[in-house]
Amino acid sequence: MQIYNSATRRKEEFVPNNPDIVKMYTCGPTVYHYAHIGNLRSYIMEDVLEKYLRYAGYNVKRVMNITDVGHLSSDADTGEDKMLKGAKREKKTVMEIAAFYTDAFFEDCRKLNIKRPDVVEPATNCIEEYIHLIERLLENGHAYEAGGNIYFDTSKLEKYYIFNEHKEEDLAVGVREGVEADDNKRNKADFVLWFTKSKFEDQELKWDSPWGVGYPGWHIECSGISMKHLGEDLDIHCGGIDNAFPHHTNEIAQSEAYLGHPWCKYWFHVLHLNTTGGKMSKSKGEFLTVSLLEEKGYDPLVYRLFCLQSHYRKSLVFSYENLDNAAITYNKLVNRIAALKEAEGELIDEAAMEALREKFHKALGNDLNTALGVTALYDVLKFATNAKTKLALIGEFDTVLGLSLLEAAAKARAEQEKLAKAETHATVVTEGEPNAEAEALALARIEARKAKDWAKADELRDALKALGFVVEDTREGAKLKRI
Ligand code: AMP
Ligand code: ZN
Which residues make Cβ contacts (< 8 Å) with residue 209, sequence separation at least 6? Predict the structure, then answer.
């Protein structure tokens, strides 16, 4: 596979350090709020990468941290503690907030068919590991104590800026007005490894350390957790592009200063999802979540398809119009798959399998071109071969794309069959008091379904819901029940 490596700024052939296992690390969510669909874009694309590697024959061990301590609202060690902010907002403890939003995150992942990494480790579980790393960094002169905190000394490195040619002034980016610069730092780029004299008097989570009671900085957690579960080298490290600097830059600095040798081979960064109004961010208050999309009647997998339709290294603009287009594509795809009928005694056409698989590998193996991966599904549908072969290939490709295509097609087929039986019964019965408006909508929905206009039918179901009715399709026709 060819993969773009942000560290070298080129596409490279992917060769893991050990052919038997690909070691993959992902920066997990900061669990002080729901994940927004921008965060989830990153996790969807990382999920496709992991699944493609497995499909291509690799064993993968993937580790993800859960940031439940130490992440301040500016990535450069300034601002408020994000977890504390969440706890204050909801009048709960930090650990309650962390547990709630960790579960919410994995629930979103489940809806989006994002596989849970093999290891998921909350940052608060590994304090000993961070203390050990920091002790070594102090011993070998890469860290210093100042004002009660421990800092990493970036001036000791031959090369600190890995991903781009930053200037020191760039560090001012993200620092909000009124936030004081930290005078303890010897160099502007230095970062906190361990806070003891923090500005947060009310910090809830603190641990004993050789430097006093305190808590770890944000960056050290990913080095500590990665080394705990994956050892001293790493094949792929993933995250959204905003993580490249300073977070990943600092991870590399401290890991390599600790290890004394190169650490991670490939850096995979997903570009941002933006709205037409600009960057999406949790701190802005209102943001788009998977639940919000569901409330508006979208299947979360439509959002997954929307993400797959563009390349992970291009920023993507979200709009409902674009999502509607993805919904149309998804429904069309599902209906075409639903129309595939396997005849009795059909055999797998191995030659067709090979030819079509090659197209899929060409797409995904070329720096994860998921848009072409989706096109490969259409190639399967168009190819002159039998339904059994097509269905087998679609199932195979979907282990990577994760769109639940066969399940959705089976559901669509069942609905269509039910509809065919009920076709002569275009009647609407209302439980209790009849409601003319609701009955007209239900009849229009039967017509839309007959015309296979599933999007329209869904819209009408939502309109009925807004009127206070659920619709149930029965052999006798549609039944309206009050919610
Ligand atoms: P956080 O929960 O803020 O630690 O972020 C979780 C992940 O989402 C990180 O990998 C971020 O780099 C990534 N991320 C943040 N904002 C966006 C966005 N708008 N689009 C894509 N990825 C994002
Ligand atoms: Zn990280």
Answer: 127, 131, 134, 194, 196
